[in-house]
Structure formats: structure tokens, C-alpha cells
UniProtKB/TrEMBL annotation:
GO terms for molecular function: histidinol-phosphate transaminase activity; pyridoxal phosphate binding. Homodimer. This is Histidinol-phosphate aminotransferase. Its cofactor is pyridoxal 5'-phosphate. Pathway: Amino-acid biosynthesis; L-histidine biosynthesis; L-histidine from 5-phospho-alpha-D-ribose 1-diphosphate: step 7/9. The modification N6-(pyridoxal phosphate)lysine is found at K210. It catalyses: L-histidinol phosphate + 2-oxoglutarate = 3-(imidazol-4-yl)-2-oxopropyl phosphate + L-glutamate. Residues 25-345 form the Aminotransferase class I/classII large domain. It comes from Marinobacter similis.
Amino acid sequence: MSKFWSPLVNDLVPYVPGEQPKMANLVKLNTNENPFGPSPKVVEAIKAELNDNLRLYPDPEGESLRQTIANYHSLKPEQIFLGNGSDEVLAHIFYGLFQHGEPILFPDITYSFYPVYCGLYDIEGIKVPLTDSFEINPEDYKQANGGVIFPNPNAPTGRYLGLEHVEEILRANPDRVVVVDEAYIDFGGESAITLVDDYPNLLVSQTLSKARSLAGLRVGFAVGNPDLIEALNRVKNSFNSYPLDRLALAGAQAAYEDEAWFQKCCDGVISERERLTKALAELDFEVLPSKANFVLARHKAKSGESLAQGLREQGIIVRHFNKPRIEQFLRITIGTPEQNDALIKGLKSL
Ligand SMILES: *Cc1c(COP(=O)(O)O)cnc(C)c1O
């Protein structure tokens, strides 16, 4: 509390990002970054942008990138909204597309930024419990609400909800926006983007941070009916007209133009996920079925906290959430084969 703070800031409860330790040689498996780097074509495209044009503002509408993403998904550019990471896109969604004054619905175990945005914009959030097997039950989303949001696959569980169930939630809420946060969709799930022409209440958000290895570039986007996109543009143009800089626009576009690299990275993560899941099961872990680039796993005897601490002492960082229902679990990002081997070896020693 400071006399200089606005009363609003005094009450904020900010998000706490996974740590980015400065130590060398860490096996860093805590923030779901992609272990395989970005396409070399992305680096080239960014270098080509490093010139005198940096004195000029970037394209406020990111038209070229929107056209590229639209083409990729067989959509129109007016169905795409760009943001400085999908976190920014989500913030604008909370502000512009949820009915403030009515509670919005999201799972009890989910991305912890959702309650933070509720606090920022003074929206009530109802935490809808996942089932005992940590799944979303569409029946639970048939109650009155001001909007619905969930990640698919969910984080930090990794569990995927089939599109027929996503449609069930969409059909139950024709007058409310249903947001599917697809940060991890490219690791084996089927995207709801194919449904946006059928459901005017559907908004899908995606990011280049995970499957396209560009967490450092900060590019995310939303896909939906032009009417929903227009609301996001109104918020954006009342906040920051240039959320994506020239380097981000160029790099993101190049990422979409290197499909082979993207596929190779996704396949690499998926095959390592299957290998790690088996290895963890052999070490007496229960591993939730994951379609993401991480797994959530609980040991039959050892506590999540002690394992996370023991790994840390060996320079291996995983995520442990001190939260109800998942405090015994570790969330482990899928690393390179070498990193995953180090993790398995570290766990064996514990
Ligand atoms: C990583 C993540 C995001 C944020 O992605 P950025 O584009 O890097 O801001 C959004 N939602 C979920 C569920 C995530 O895990």
C-alpha cells in the first residue's frame, strides 16, 4: 500500500509466472516452452527487419500476418485478431466479450491467469470443478453465466476435450461467448477453429509461444466471427494501437511459412511425451493422459513438493502448484530427449 497507488491497484492479485532462473546448465522444464528452437527462417526474417524502418511504427492492423494466418486456416482476415502474446488477447476478451455483472465460468483447475483478469476487470468468476479424473464435464456449463472460458487441452492437467463436447458447451450458451484457449492444441488435439463459421458465439485463442517456439517474441491471436473480432479491436485501439512490433510481425509470419519445421517440432514433442509418460509410469507415477507439451504426474508415495525440491537440487526445474487437488502433482514440460533423460535419472536417484 502506498499513498500514490490507486485503490484499484491496492486490491489487485497479480499472476505469478513460472520462474526464469538465471543459472547456467539448468534442465528447465517448468514453463512449457518448446525445447526445439524456432525455425531458422524466423531468425532470418527478423534479421531482415533490422534496418532503418525501425524508426517507423509497425502496421497497427498486422494485415500481412492476419492474411497469412487466415489462409492457413481457410478463413478471412476479418476473423483474426492479433495481440502481444495470447495473454494480452485474453485480457481484451475478458474486458470486451464477457458480460460484466454476471459470473463467468471456468474450471477449478485451470490457467491461473483467468481469476487474475477477473480481478483486474471486476468480473465474478465461478470455478467449476473438474471431474475426479480431472476432465471438463460439459453438463456443468449449462448454468447461467456471463461467458465461459477453458483451455483445450486444459492446463495444467493436459487433458483434452473432444470437439463434440466443445460443441455441447457452445450449443448450451448461444447468447454468451465461449472462449477456447488453444495454447497447446498443436500437440495432438483437434482445433475448434473449424467450428467458428458455425458458432457466432465461439472465440478460439492460440499462441506462437508453445508449438511454434516463439515465447520470447510475444505473439498470440484470436479467431472468431467478425463481430467478436470488432469488439477486440475496439478494446485494443483504446489501449495500445501497436501491440506487435515490426520484428514480431515478421518473425510470426515466417513461422507460419515454415510448416515442415513446425510439424517436426510437434512430432518431436509428442513422441517424447509418450516416452516420458511410460518412463514415469515405470517409476510409480500416475500420469494424466496429456495432449499438451507437458504432463501432470503424481508419485504413489513421494510428495510433489519434496520431489520438486529434490530435482531442483540437481539443477532440474519442474512446476509444483501448492493448490487444492493438485498439490501432490508435478507439472513437467516435455524437453529434448537429453533433458527428459536427465529428468528420469534425477527421479530415479530420488
Ligand atoms: C502459455 C499459455 C498462454 C499464454 O501464451 P502467450 O501467448 O505466451 O501469452 C495462454 N493460455 C494458456 C493456457 C497457456 O498455457
